[in-house]
Specification:
By secondary structure, the protein is an all-alpha fold. It has one domain (about 10-165). It is about 75% helix and about 0% strand. It contains eight helices and no strands. The protein has helices at about 10-15, 20-25, 30-55, 65-95, 95-100, 105-125, 130-135, 140-165. Helix 2 crosses helix 4 (about 65-95), helix 3 runs antiparallel to helix 4 and helix 3 runs antiparallel to helix 8.
Length: about 170
């Protein structure tokens, strides 16, 4: 039985009323399965980032060189991030117009962008001198600032992501 959807009036409704969007939204299993995978992937992203940030802050794993820890965690971080991005995009497509008016969704996207900029600055500026401080227990202020910002921003992403689930359909 086909569902009726009105003619889309914007790009978000076009995504939502697409065959992919309606398939996910109308399926009994697709949305909850995607959401479960998304949460597991995000927990992996945050967990691996937190391991690295705690090391940069000198609060954990000080016996590990920063470069070794980065080599060990980064593949997991990026793999999980790609999975979270794919599942997040599929979740978005199923309710695009609702997400685009939800302030928690907009904050989540903004905080992720800021976390990405923080990571880029760290890797292309602060990390360039890693050979000077790699195995030291106390790291430079720039590394500590990047780690602190990272933790704050990713906690904000998680908070907003959780809030989205409780506020879908409230904002129009």
């Amino acid at each position: 039985m086909a569902s009726y959807y009105p003619e889309p009036t914007n790009i978000w409704e076009s995504l939502e009323y697409s065959s992919l969007g309606t398939s996910i939204a109308e399926s009994l299993w697709a949305f909850p399965t995607l959401e479960t995978i998304h949460v597991i992937a995000l927990v992996t992203v945050f967990g691996t980032i937190m391991i690295m940030d705690l090391r940069l802050l000198g609060l954990a794993s000080n016996e590990w060189a920063v470069t070794q820890m980065s080599r060990d965690t980064l593949p997991w971080t990026w793999g999980a991030f790609v999975l979270a991005a794919i599942t997040g995009t599929l979740l978005f497509v199923s309710k695009a117009s609702t997400y685009m008016v939800n302030p928690y969704f907009l904050w989540k996207m903004s905080l992720m962008a800021l976390a990405g900029l923080n990571m880029l600055y760290f890797h292309f500026k602060t990390y360039q001198t890693v050979s000077e401080w790699d195995a030291k227990p106390v790291l430079p202020t720039g590394a500590k600032v990047a780690a602190t910002l990272s933790l704050v921003l990713w906690i904000g992403v998680i908070f907003c992501g959780r809030a989205i689930g409780f506020t879908l359909g409230i904002y129009y």
